[in-house]
Amino acid sequence: NFKVYLDNKPYFSKKVTGELHGSIPLQDEPKMPDSKVATLNKNKTAMSTINEYVPQLGTSIQTGSILHSKIFNQNFGKIGAASTVDGQPNFLNTGIYSISGESLEDGKVFVNDDNAGRTTTLELYYESNQADETPDTSVIADVTIESNLGKQVVKDVTGKIGKDIQVTVPKKDGYVADKKTVTAHVNQDGTITTEEKVTYTKNTGDEKPNNNQNNNQNGNDASSNLPSHYNGLVGTMKKPVDLYDFNNGQMTKNKQRQLADHSDWKVDQIITLKGIKYYRVATNEWVKDSDIYRYVAQKGIVDTKDVEVTYLSTVEDKLINNRGLAANTAWKYDRIAYLGSNETKYYRVATDEFVKASDVINN
């Protein structure tokens, strides 16, 4: 499997197979990204190998510039191409020749016993030379407010990095807060924090208790039968997502429409019914929170730590076993995603490839 990425998005892929004791002919070379507008990042070159006939060998993963040199730099010129592309090396054919370890005769690579049942995936990464557009620096995070009644958590607060925002103080039955809002700061790491404290005093007057213990900064109760305002983004996963109609305080499945898999949607309202949270993606069209994931459209760069392999996860929060990121390498991300039932924070570094925020360093 030969895969090429541009800015962590698929650019070209091709699967080449060969029968045991047969041969792999020269392949037509694909047109790679123009060197005037994109640069090959050799530190990200990756190779993973699975041995179907000897599964106890597991999956081997290699990445980095040394691997790139071993595969390509040392073997350029040793094999031609069925058709060449001017101004670029023969990446595809050189890769087949190098990773097979086989002899080359009459312009063909022979498949001997050592390669029986073996699948190798070779990946190249290009990065655009142009500077990225100004990223959307909005983040969504929970805010913790210290109070004399303990920590008060306000869920799903939205703000732009580097800005101060106003956060509504949660109401408590039988108590009156000494302020209605607190000032919070949106930090570079995506957290939102406040240094202000709130004091609640017992309500001894005739005022009726307020049952709206809302932890949503927009002021409506997300756990009641009334929708709350919500400004955010959600994405679907590998399967089409059912839509629901909200009528008379109940959700009914829409049998006519679904959201496509791997699609993105803007949300403007939220509601919780019988313990299930729903987001509104269109007029009276709602999705269950378990069928989607929340994300923030933000670009940036993260660095892997000094460990042999930093593993990746799919959008379903499942570990990818046959691929990882090399130590001390930089990776562009295009969104911050909150995956799984616990909404663990991830950075998306490629299509359906996410790295856990706790495993990398955010620049």
From TrEMBL:
Taxonomic path:
Bacteria, Bacillati, Bacillota, Bacilli, Lactobacillales
- Biased region (Low complexity) positions are 210-220
The domain of life for this entry's organism is Bacteria
Query: Where do the segments described as Disordered lie?
Result: 202-231
- Protein name (Swiss-Prot/TrEMBL): SLAP domain-containing protein
